[in-house]
Amino acid sequence: MLLADQIEWMNAGGGLSFAAGRSAESAKIIYDWAETTSYTTPFVTDPAMRSNVVATINFEDGIDALEIAKVLRANG
How far is residue 73's CA from residue 45's CA, in Å, rounded to a whole number? Predict the structure, then answer.
């Protein structure tokens, strides 16, 4: 079901080049945010080694991971 939804989304947007471009743009947005926010850093420090599909962001120790998860879930 999830794969079918992904394929339908990709095809509706224009195919693989659309999906790859969208992933690259989303990755740029989140990594730029993580690099410029005072309490976050990208987990993978070398930009050439970062994924355009999965972004892992480190938060300062004082930030509550459960609260982050709660806010993310509340915002879809």
Answer: 26
